[in-house]
Design a protein that fits this description.
The protein is of the alpha/beta class and 219 residues long. The protein is built from 7 helices and 13 strands. It has 2 domains: 116 residues, Periplasmic binding protein-like II (D-Maltodextrin-Binding Protein, domain 2, 3-Layer(aba) Sandwich); 90 residues, 3-Layer(aba) Sandwich (D-Maltodextrin-Binding Protein, domain 2).
């Protein structure tokens, strides 16, 4: 049925793509993605409707019946189809108050001794990876499951944080937080579009994924 639907959509002019999409987006990054979706994509494709969830929780795509989920990080279910649409720059950050209390960080060994506001999902603490191959799991002062909560903890001086750069660049520019170890390049993290539609996803789904990929390149 999906293949018949896709074949029918492909022969339509681009502006006539139609149907409904249930979409999952990562919390704070998802809010940034939604702006061009609302202002550009939905205007260009008025016959496509949406149900959108914004959460950092790793939803069960099959059980919760998502058409596509955009996820930061890896894919662990073999039955899913994934496409990397962006590589996200990361940043190590802390507040001026935190740096005044703990001192400047000059190497990774010093970094390992700092209390962090850690990103934790289903009991897993996400590591910090550097381009040179170094990897550490930070010490946790508080474990959180959303970027906005980690950002707030960092600004409040509770701990250091490891966050997607585009979510904190304005804070860095305005001096609310300070970048740690800026000379050591961090590994990027993939943003992936994940679905279960096989090799012939509905045309409306392909249009959305291509649009988000382009929007991420322009941002």
């Amino acid at each position: 049925m999906r293949q018949i639907e896709s074949a029918t959509e492909v022969v339509r002019p681009k502006h006539q793509a139609s149907g409904h999409l249930r979409v999952g987006l990562p919390g704070d990054l998802g809010i940034q993605i939604l702006k061009p979706v609302f202002t550009e994509f939905m205007s260009e494709h008025p016959a496509i409707s949406f149900e959108i969830s914004t959460t950092d929780r790793h939803v069960d795509i099959l059980r919760e019946k998502f058409d596509v989920v955009f996820r930061v990080g890896g894919v662990q279910q073999n039955a899913l189809i994934s496409r990397t649409i962006a590589h996200l720059d990361m940043a190590l950050v802390a507040s001026p108050i935190f740096v005044a209390q703990w001192g400047l960080v000059e190497d990774v060994r010093r970094l390992q001794k700092l209390p962090f506001a850690r990103y934790t999902m289903a009991g897993r603490h996400y590591p910090i990876r550097f381009v040179n191959g170094t990897e550490i799991v930070p010490e946790g002062r508080v474990d959180l499951d959303s970027a906005s909560a980690i950002r707030e903890a960092v600004i409040s001086g509770v701990g250091a944080g490891h966050l997607v750069r585009r979510l904190v660049q304005e804070d860095i520019d305005q001096g609310r937080i300070i970048e740690l170890l800026p000379s050591m390049k961090l590994q990027t993290v993939p943003l992936q579009a994940i679905h279960v539609s096989g090799n012939m996803p509905p045309h409306r789904l392909t249009l959305l994924v291509n649009f988000v990929a382009g929007a991420m390149r322009r941002a």
